[in-house]
Amino acid sequence: MEDTVPQKPNPLWTRDFIIITLGSVVSMLGSTLTWFAMDLMVLDYTGSTPLFALYGMVYMLPNALAPVLAGPFLDRFSRKKTIYTLDFITAGLFAALALFLAAGQFRFGILAAANFLLGAIGGIYTVAYDSFYPLLISEGNYQKAYSVASTLETLTLVMVPVSTLIYKTLGILPLLWINTATFLAAAVMETQIRTGEQYVEDEAKEGRQSAGLRRFTADFREGMVYLAGEKGLLAIAVYFLFSSLTGGMTSVVTLPYFRRAFRDGEYVYMLVWGMSSLARAVGGAAHYRLRLPTEKKYSIAFLVYIMISLLEGGYLFFPVPWMMGMMFLSGMLGVTSYNIRIASTQKYVPDGKKGRFNGVFGTLSTVGMLLGQALAGGLSAVLGERTIVVIANALCLGAAVVCIGGNRREVSAIYNRQV
């Protein structure tokens, strides 16, 4: 009888995985420093919830269109080059915005135009990154890799109170220059990634790298046919459309509610939602070590979707300490939902179709966010913020029951897999 030598597990922390992780952390730190301060600035400048909603919608509109337009091209051309090129462009855009504001050109129109460009860049970047990142993960390490990503993304949120302090004491300009530097540093690091993109070589061999409207139309149709033929993926995508709609509705009214209901409400807001961020960091670290039972992932995810809707639909009706506890639990559940969904779908979708799938998924999610912001902006004129939050989460709960619960066999075939 031959002796069997157990195989060593593949290492997760390869050179390229370290580079993409460091680059992501650096750019996320800068973005987190800036986005909350810019939201506060818009609220302070306009004093209007509808204009605040419009500011968010201006970002979401190109963000909704860009992923589905970019997805087919990113299945044929280099995602790595796209990632670092967009980071260089983003650094330049923040530098230009800082110069405009330093020159006294403080106008809502300029801020809205910059947000529009950032939305377009962000939509393309997200598809490129989400489709390239799995190529840097060694076999058997998907759950660990996405646990790392979600944990680090959450940890960067500790910069929100720092952002608020800098904004209130020094203004927005230092934050814009910091963001310029961080995106520039991330872009330089990303140019050093060596992992090849085999799907690009395959497309070149088949002579399918030509651009143009006809090629794009064929690729786009192919992506939609693929998603329509994958009932489980379609059900997941539609559920997250409603989840994003809920997020869009609540994002418009939550910060204004806290600023109206509490003295120094932005700090209370950060305290409450900081518990969610803390929980996501703790949960992400736990998922790095803990493996969920493969055959139970669907059931866990379905229960998580329902509980998150209940918690986030009702937390504003409780005292602040209860809000904090409910958001901590929601954060723990949220990181579990994220890890199951992202690891399973990225493992399931072939490399050559990841761009198209992620593009369509990103567009559906962004359309949901955009519709949610528009809906909440309109409803805020006639309904209270807490009522809007309840309505939003009731819609999300219904979507979970219909889309995920109603397609158990197809969704479980995707979620209940070894990653």
The tally of beta strands, per DSSP, is 0
Basic shape: globular
Structural class: mainly alpha
β-strand percent reads under 5%
| Tally of domains | 1
User: For the terminal residues, how far apart are their CA atoms?
Assistant: 32 Å
**Mind telling me the CATH class?**
Mainly Alpha
Radius of gyration: 21 Å
By CATH, the superfamily comes out as: MFS general substrate transporter like domains
Corresponding CATH architecture = Up-down Bundle
Percentage of residues in helical conformation: over 70%
Order of helices and strands: HHHHHHHHHHHHHHHH
Q: Number of DSSP helices?
A: 16
Q: Largest sheet at a glance?
A: none
Briefly note the CATH topology name.
Growth Hormone, Chain: A
**Uncertain segments:** 1-6
Mean pLDDT: 81
Descriptive report:
The protein is an all-alpha fold and 419 residues long. It has 16 helices and no strands. The protein is globular, with a radius of gyration of 21 Å.
Q: How are the SSEs ordered, and which strands pair?
A:
Elements lengths: L14 H32 L2 H26 L4 H24 L5 H25 L9 H14 L3 H12 L2 H18 L7 H8 L7 H17 L1 H31 L3 H25 L7 H18 L5 H29 L5 H26 L5 H20 L3 H8 L4
Helix pairs in contact: 1-2, 1-5, 1-6, 1-7, 2-4, 2-9, 2-14, 3-4, 3-7, 4-14, 5-11, 5-13, 10-11, 10-14, 10-15, 10-16, 11-13, 12-13, 12-15, 12-16
Outline of the structure:
With about 425 residues, the protein is mostly helical. The protein has helices at about 15-45, 50-75, 80-100, 110-130, 140-155, 160-170, 175-190, 200-205, 215-230, 230-260, 265-290, 295-315, 320-350, 355-380, 385-405, 410-415.
